[in-house]
């Protein structure tokens, strides 16, 4: 396979949920992007913007309402038999809540070994045990932890076990759904370093979802900003940070507190009015229109398309690129 | 009234709140958990003080102690002193306490959904506080609606009649702030007020709290684990670790001349937008100590890159830096006989301005 072909290709993805009778919640509304092998795509957005639903649809946990997800050129949602099994080995997930995503009645060895059992990744008991020990050492735990239960570990250690479980089946692609949000600052850094190291050493591809823009920027090569189910801006992470073009990205960026009092005092802060509208009845036209300072009549009429304004910099705004920010 | 005003004027530079040698323990089956182990600080009139630290360092317990909200199995130990405007909080009668809580000192909790009563209309919850402090029902209602408007809730009159579940997360937090400031307290304790909120909403809430101080001169204690939030907001910062204050100073001193290795590590652990991508973040090895059996020496010694023998044996003395004595840290590095080689190593680890260590 040439390195130019994307590992994951999402086109026109929509995922609607029916809630309370007739209401339709448009969690993901026409999202398209590609992820190249070995790359990290970050997805940021506030709660309820559809970032988790988007991630889960990409790895086949939800069936999309419309649109396609191609993994290595094959439609994820119509895989069958051996292909489906190979896909589930290739693609793993690290969840947000290490307390809820690990079975409290299984030992660490059972949790890590389960995937290896299913995919027959070892030849004998001894090899299985050795492999589990090796995985535990990779994530900074040791062999003795293998026979313990989850309640004996701290949050950071649990997240390490979650990572070891994901790595056990030698995946190519990992969906990281807010993997550090539930952890303390110093522990967040440990986990982030671990993820970056494994990407370098094992050539993994990540879809990294978080609400913490600084962390996403730190880990990702490219970042997509989501708002109410749609991608507002997609660009290289350095570029997105230095030249945000969408008014929502600007506001989001200016709201992030920086741990430096001088910068913090001098900064101009764009404080958005009001709350995120409900995705059940999102505003017509551009979804950001009712909170946007630059909204005009055309924004209320027509939703802007995600277009390439600068090389590799996509923005969904009618006025993108017109004014210098 | 004029007499009172005069008194306030004189007290301007006097601390509003003095905490001396506060010790709080929880008596559990596992043993005595020493959550707070002898901390002292004071908060001046109109000052914003931030307490920063990781989970389990005792910052919330400190806040609850000030409000006298410690319940069994927890206990404030003897010898601890909390003075609010010269009055001893521990010695207050029930009547004085109910005047003190909500009246002079109030609290904004982290999780507004848990802190608000789900079966009671939001307006009524705000009125409740006012009524306790001597307002008539009619006035209290008007005031509650005014307060809801003042904290930026649109359609205050309609919102007044709604229940907490009908509010969004940011609005609930606003309602909590309205409740906290209803009786114009002199001190507001905000315990991680924005941790559960999105960044854009966080910015709104922090602006609101700041306005409170700027307009009414209210003192604020902000409890947080986020250096970013603190940077734009606090005047004085207290860093806590394992139930102790390990460093204290003004905002500039803590951010630009931090002295304690734990503060260095914390500052280096948070990725910043202006740092290079995918560079190694500073981590702190291991985990915080178990406070059932707190370590003998410095609580951070086991995780510290610069640990010396003395650190494991004896508690470090608190050393003051600078002339005005606002900056102090508890670390053996600043003892007179600290070995030269450790000091050399410390230079490498010290967190310098510009965000990175000298290493890089």
TrEMBL record, chain A:
InterPro entries: AAA+_ATPase, ABC_transp_ATP-bind, ABC_transporter-like_ATP-bd, ABC_transporter-like_CS, Oligopep_ABC_C, P-loop_NTPase. GO terms for molecular function: ATP binding. Residues 8-253 form the ABC transporter domain. Keywords: ATP-binding, Nucleotide-binding, Transport. The keyword Nucleotide-binding applies. Pfam families: ABC_tran, oligo_HPY. Belongs to the ABC transporter superfamily. This is ATP-binding cassette domain-containing protein. The lineage of its organism: Bacteria, Bacillati, Bacillota, Clostridia, Lachnospirales.
UniProtKB/TrEMBL annotation, chain B:
It comes from the Bacteria. GO terms for molecular function: ATP binding. Keywords: ATP-binding, Cell membrane, Membrane, Nucleotide-binding, Transport. Its main location: membrane. Residues 17-267 form the ABC transporter domain. It is found in: Cell membrane. Belongs to the ABC transporter superfamily. This is ABC transporter ATP-binding protein. It comes from Bariatricus massiliensis.
């Amino acid at each position: 396979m040439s390195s130019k072909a994307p590992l994951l290709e999402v086109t026109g993805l929509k995922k609607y949920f029916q809630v309370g009778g007739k209401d339709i919640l448009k969690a993901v509304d026409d999202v398209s992007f590609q992820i190249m092998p070995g790359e990290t795509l970050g997805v940021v957005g506030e709660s309820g913007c559809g970032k988790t639903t988007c991630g889960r649809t990409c790895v086949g946990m939800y069936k999309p309402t419309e649109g396609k997800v191609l993994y290595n050129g094959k439609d994820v949602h119509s895989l069958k038999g051996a292909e489906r099994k190979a896909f589930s080995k290739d693609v793993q997930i690290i969840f947000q809540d290490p307390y809820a995503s690990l079975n409290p009645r299984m030992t660490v060895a059972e949790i890590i070994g389960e995937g290896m059992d299913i995919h027959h990744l070892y030849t004998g008991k001894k090899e299985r045990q050795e492999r589990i020990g090796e995985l535990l050492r990779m994530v900074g735990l040791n062999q003795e932890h293998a026979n313990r239960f989850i309640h004996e570990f701290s949050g950071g250690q649990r997240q390490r076990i979650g990572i070891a479980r994901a790595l056990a089946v030698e995946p190519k692609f990992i969906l990281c759904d807010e993997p550090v949000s539930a952890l303390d600052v110093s522990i967040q850094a440990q986990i982030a370093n671990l993820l970056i190291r494994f990407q370098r050493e094992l050539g993994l591809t990540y879809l990294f979802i978080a609400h913490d823009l600084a962390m996403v920027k730190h880990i990702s090569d490219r970042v997509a900003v989501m708002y109410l189910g749609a991608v507002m801006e997609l660009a290289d992470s350095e570029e997105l940070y230095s030249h945000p073009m969408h008014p929502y990205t600007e506001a989001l960026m200016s709201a992030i507190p920086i741990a430096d009092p001088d910068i913090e005092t001098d900064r101009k802060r764009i404080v958005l009015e009001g709350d995120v509208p409900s995705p059940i009845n999102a505003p017509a036209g551009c979804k950001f229109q009712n909170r946007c300072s630059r909204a005009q009549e055309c924004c209320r009429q027509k939703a802007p398309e995600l277009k390439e304004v600068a090389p590799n910099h996509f923005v969904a705004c009618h006025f993108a690129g017109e004014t210098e920010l | 009234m004029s007499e009172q005003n005069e008194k306030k004027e004189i007290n301007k530079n006097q601390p509003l709140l003095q905490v001396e040698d506060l010790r709080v323990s929880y008596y559990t089956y596992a043993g005595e958990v020493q959550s707070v182990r002898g901390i002292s600080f004071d908060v001046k009139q109109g000052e914003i003080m931030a307490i920063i630290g990781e989970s389990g360092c005792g910052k919330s317990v400190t806040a609850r102690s000030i409000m006298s909200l410690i319940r069994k199995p927890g206990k404030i130990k003897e010898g601890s002193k909390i003075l609010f405007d010269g009055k001893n909080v521990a010695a207050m009668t029930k009547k004085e306490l109910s005047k003190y809580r909500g009246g002079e000192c109030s609290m904004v909790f982290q999780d507004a959904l848990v802190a608000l009563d789900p079966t009671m209309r939001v307006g009524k919850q705000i009125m409740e506080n006012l009524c306790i402090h001597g307002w008539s029902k009619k006035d209290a209602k008007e005031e509650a609606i005014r307060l809801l408007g003042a904290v930026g809730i649109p359609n205050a009159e309609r919102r007044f009649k709604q229940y907490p579940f009908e509010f969004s997360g940011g609005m609930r937090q606003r309602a909590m702030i309205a409740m906290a400031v209803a009786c114009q307290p002199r001190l507001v304790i905000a315990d991680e007020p924005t941790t559960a909120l999105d960044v854009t909403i966080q910015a709104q809430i922090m602006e609101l709290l700041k306005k409170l101080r700027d307009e009414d001169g209210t003192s604020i204690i902000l409890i947080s684990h986020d250096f970013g939030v603190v940077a734009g907001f606090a005047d004085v910062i207290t860093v806590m670790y394992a139930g102790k204050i390990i460093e204290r100073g003004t905002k500039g001193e803590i951010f630009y001349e931090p002295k304690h290795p734990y503060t260095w590590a914390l500052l280096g652990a948070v990725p910043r937008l202006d740092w290079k991508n995918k560079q190694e973040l500073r981590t702190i090895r291991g985990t915080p100590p178990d406070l059932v059996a707190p370590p003998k020496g410095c609580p951070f010694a086991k995780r510290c890159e610069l640990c010396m023998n003395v650190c494991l044996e004896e508690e470090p003395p608190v050393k003051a830096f600078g002339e005005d004595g606002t900056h102090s840290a508890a670390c053996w590095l600043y003892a007179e006989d600290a070995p030269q080689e450790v000091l050399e190593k410390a230079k490498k680890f010290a967190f310098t301005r510009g965000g990175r260590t000298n290493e890089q």
